[in-house]
Specification:
Blueprint: H1 52-63, E1 68-72, H2 79-86, E2 93-98, H3 107-115, H4 125-133, E3 138-143, H5 152-161, E4 165-171, E5 180-184, H6 195-206, H7 217-229, H8 234-241, H9 249-258, H10 263-266, H11 279-289, H12 292-301, E6 308-309, H13 310-316, H14 327-332, H15 337-349, E7 354-359, E8 362-366, H16 369-381, H17 385-407, H18 412-435, H19 439-456, H20 459-475, H21 481-496, H22 504-514, H23 520-536, H24 540-556, H25 560-576, H26 580-597, H27 600-613, H28 615-637, H29 640-653, H30 659-676, H31 679-695, H32 699-708, H33 713-719, H34 722-737, H35 741-749, H36 755-770, H37 793-803, H38 808-815, H39 819-833, H40 838-848
Parallel strand pairs: 1-4, 1-5, 2-3, 3-4
Antiparallel strand pairs: 6-8, 7-8
């Protein structure tokens, strides 16, 4: 006997409960008719978001005759709902069996009772089911199968015995049966206007939270960031939205980001019984179903605060390292990679570990925050925390040794990228070393990260760590003279970029390193740091002497990386001396030397000097194009300092021809400079903004801002070429000449405060100039594209990234902008196109040709 087409069997507990009963054997099996809907699927109680593609894929597989389809995904991701919606239009009969309350021994009987009501006892269950289902197509949904994976052979036998049967299984892990078609269900998209955000608002309003109904842009940004933090999990979003009766999304986000609230505690109190009542129960259900090696790996992976690769996982999850065990043994731990890989595959299968983008030869993985929190709890309660921390430290020190060598080479970009990938784990290691008062290893690790902080920031972070370890060494001296000098050199170097130009400690450190045998690279680095500091102080002749010494020593010791660095510094010095022809010649020599060894960062910096010196002969448009190409070169080289300085240059170069574009470059440069702690770069942007205000006929604002930065001008003046400084002063004096005495007095008192106040004020002014007021349109304007949407080049790039499916944080990282700046750009795109969000913008862009549809074009080559 089969279940009628308009009904389905249901076993166990579910939020989709409609009625109950017992089978003839009286075994307490819950029988649930699927309601009275003609398609045999019950109506759900809430709206579904963002699963159209998965539902369509399942339907297509079933329609094409796939015998076994498995919907996989993490707990609470929405597998059951996808299965239900996919079955709404399935031809033939459908039975739904929920198995969370069934064990392996009871599975055969449970299937018989659900699919063959009244079946005789003692008969082979496979034969009973096959006889009952033969004759017409029948889809059986087996929901929550992950705890029954040891019984997959039963499903294999059923499919072999019943040719009219199709199985649709939901499970946190695939079944690994022949002929299985896996449909993974992943996180909901979390960007503004995407499914996760829409779901959060709908669920929050359903519980009486989030008033008014139409949120402001800042509120949407907070919700999008919160959904991103929650990993796009529908269950987590639903649980978090229920908290909006007490917290605003921004407050909830701040609490979770600061660590003031546990995600597992915050995401509790759901209305559903069983494993989905809160996130802790959901995670624990998966954890308890793992074999012990996989559980151990999950616990230990929680030590990584960010992503990790296979080598790091193998090193950290091996035996606890002891202080006397050297880097060689940690490296030998990579032999365990095969074993760790097997367990890691299991965790990926169970959607407990998530693969993320990485290089082709070094794929990377991560735990979601709530999984990391759960794993850390298990690590502590199991007494494994200290041993795992020791392993993390040994891996970190091995990485540091390789990074110090790699970053001092033409492979610098590769190693800066690697450091960036590992930075959360390296920060955790620095924190552990500081807790243990281990200045020796702490300084070594900070030294390894130094090139990253110097080129990508934040430089203040490097200074803080080094200062902390040097203070620890003062309390209990343990550093060698060489290590102490190298740390002092880096610390002063970071201070220079914050506008602190006390160089005596750096000069002393250089002298110490000069006497150390085999310390050529350390001495060259200290020499370059000191030359840079002297340049920023305006002592160009003294800097030139150091530069010459650096070129000679790097050449003598056959260190082409360092020779290129000092050649570029020589060209920059000529530029600062306003020796145009010499600057171009030196820069061209630098380009040739750097290209010969593939040192792209120095190529880009030398070409920036050439673009500046040839600006007059290139003309405004030629100079803009040259600087734009240079910006892309800095981005390709991963040189964020170069990005900031080129943005400032682009702002200055476009002031006379395109005020809104100049303002955008200046605002973007200020935000990027603040993000990496490049104070001089910010200062150059503020100076460009003052000239821009003069050009925009806002003399009062120009003079007010010039007055505000006077305490900082001695430092900025020293680092500017004389011609540039003279042009800036001429513009300011022309603005002063347009003001009457009362206005001059107003300008003198209108803006006071610290540098962050000046920065914020300048960004606000630049943003206002970048988006001039438009004529208001009638409130009843029909939504749709403007007649000629004039998107800026940056807006087109952001639109293309949106079309590629990137989130705002991903776009911000790719273009070296803050997420808030990306939000400004995307909002501007939507406004200009007259659309409501991402999906409409992308569809319109392809339809109107703003973005090229390459789907039908052949691949190159």
């Amino acid at each position: 006997m089969t279940v009628p087409a308009a009904e389905a069997s249901y076993i166990g507990r579910s939020p989709y409960r409609y009625g109950s009963g017992h089978d003839g054997a009286g075994r307490g099996v819950t029988f649930m008719p699927w309601g009275v809907k003609s398609d045999g699927v019950p109506s759900a109680r809430s709206r579904m978001f963002g699963r159209d593609a998965e539902i369509a894929e399942v339907r297509e597989l079933l329609a094409d005759g796939a015998r076994l389809v498995t919907i996989t995904g993490a707990g609470g991701i929405g597998k059951t709902r996808v299965a239900m919606e996919a079955c709404r239009k399935v031809s033939g009969q459908v039975s739904f069996i929920e198995l969370s309350g069934t064990d392996e021994a009871g599975l055969p009987g449970a299937l018989v009772r659900a699919l063959v009501p009244g079946a005789a006892t003692g008969r082979d269950p496979v034969r009973s089911i096959a006889d009952a289902l033969t004759g017409e197509p029948h889809v059986v949904v087996l929901d929550t199968f992950e705890h029954l994976l040891a019984s997959v052979e039963l499903l294999d036998e059923l499919l072999e015995a019943c040719q009219d049967l199709q199985l649709l299984v939901t499970s946190r892990a695939r079944l690994r049966l022949s002929g299985e078609h896996v449909v993974p269900v992943g996180a909901l998209p979390t960007g503004a206007g995407e499914a996760a955000v829409a779901m959060f608002y709908q669920r929050a309003r359903a519980v009486g939270g989030l008033r008014p109904a139409e949120p402001a842009d800042d509120g949407q940004a907070a919700v999008a960031a919160l959904c991103e933090l929650l990993g796009g999990s529908p269950l987590a979003i639903e649980l978090a939205s229920a908290r909006t009766i007490m917290f605003t999304p921004a407050a909830m986000l701040a609490a979770l980001q600061s660590g003031g609230q546990s995600q597992l505690r915050m995401l509790a109190g759901g209305s559903t019984a069983g494993r989905h009542r809160d996130m802790r129960s959901t995670v624990a259900w998966s954890y308890l179903l793992l074999e012990e090696p996989a559980r151990r790996l999950l616990r230990r992976l929680a030590i990584f605060p960010g992503s990790f690769d296979l080598d790091a996982a193998a090193a950290v999850c091996g035996p606890a390292a002891q202080d006397e065990v050297g880097a060689a043994e940690v490296q030998a731990g990579s032999d365990q990679a095969g074993t760790v890989l097997d367990d890691l595959v299991d965790l990926v299968d169970w959607h407990l570990v998530e693969p993320i983008a990485g290089s082709a030869d070094a794929p990377r993985f991560r735990l979601l925050d709530m999984l990391r929190e759960f794993g850390a709890e298990q690590l502590r309660t199991g007494g494994e925390l200290t041993a795992t921390q020791d392993n993390l430290l040994h891996w970190s020190m091995d990485f540091a040794g390789r990074a110090i060598t790699g970053a001092d080479s033409p492979a610098e970009r590769l190693w800066l990228d690697r450091i960036e990938h590992e930075l959360p784990s390296l920060r955790a290691a620095l924190g552990l070393l500081l807790e243990r008062a281990d200045a020796t290893r702490g300084v070594r690790l900070a030294e390894a990260i130094g090139p990253f902080w110097a080129n990508r920031g934040p430089m203040s972070e490097g200074r803080r760590w080094l200062s902390a370890f040097l203070e620890e060494d003062q309390r209990d001296p343990m550093l060698s003279g060489r290590a102490r000098a190298a740390a002092a050199a880096w610390s002063v170097r970071f201070a220079v970029d914050e506008g602190v130009l006390d160089l005596e400690a750096l000069a002393a450190a250089r002298d110490v390193l000069a006497a150390e045998p085999g310390a050529d690279a350390d001495w060259l680095r200290a020499t370059e740091h000191l030359a840079y500091g002297l340049t920023m102080r305006g002592e160009l002749d003294a800097a030139d002497q150091l530069t010459t010494a650096g070129i000679e020593r790097a050449t003598l010791n056959n260190l082409p990386y360092w020779r290129c660095i000092f050649l570029q510094r020589r060209a920059l010095s000529a530029h600062r001396h306003s020796q145009s022809a010499l600057a171009v010649r030196y820069a061209q020599e630098t380009v040739l030397a750097a290209e010969a060894i593939g040192f792209q960062r120095i190529v880009a910096r030398a070409e920036q000097i050439i673009a500046h010196e040839r600006a007059a002969e290139l003309g405004p448009e030629g100079a803009r194009l040259a600087l734009l190409a240079n910006l892309r070169a800095h981005e390709a080289a991963g040189d964020l300092r170069g990005v900031v300085s080129t943005m400032a240059s682009l702002g200055g170069a476009t002031i006379s021809t395109d005020i809104p574009a100049a303002a955008r470059w200046i605002a973007d440069g200020l935000e990027a400079g603040a993000a990496i702690g490049y104070w001089h770069g910010e200062g150059y942007c503020v100076i460009a903004a003052i000239v821009l205000l003069v050009r925009a006929r806002r003399p009062l604002d120009a003079v007010r801002l010039d007055n505000a930065i006077q305490p900082y001008m001695p430092t900025l003046h020293a680092s500017l070429p004389p011609a540039h400084y003279a042009a800036y002063r001429a513009a300011v004096e022309s603005a002063r000449g347009r003001l009457d005495p009362a206005e001059l007095a107003q300008a003198a008192t209108g803006l006071t405060g610290s540098w962050p106040v000046i920065r914020g004020h300048t960004i606000a002014i630049a943003r206002s100039l970048a988006a001039p007021a438009e004529t208001p349109e009638p409130a009843t304007r029909r939504r749709g594209p403007r007649s000629n949407p004039e998107l800026t080049e940056r807006e087109l790039e952001v639109l293309a990234a949106i079309a590629a499916g990137q989130t705002n944080p991903q776009i911000a990282a790719a273009f070296h902008l803050s997420p808030k700046t990306v939000m400004h750009h995307s909002t501007s795109v939507y406004r200009k196109l007259g659309v409501r969000g991402r999906a409409e913008a992308v569809a319109l862009a392809y339809r109107t040709g703003l973005l090229a549809d390459t789907s039908s074009k052949p691949a190159d080559g």
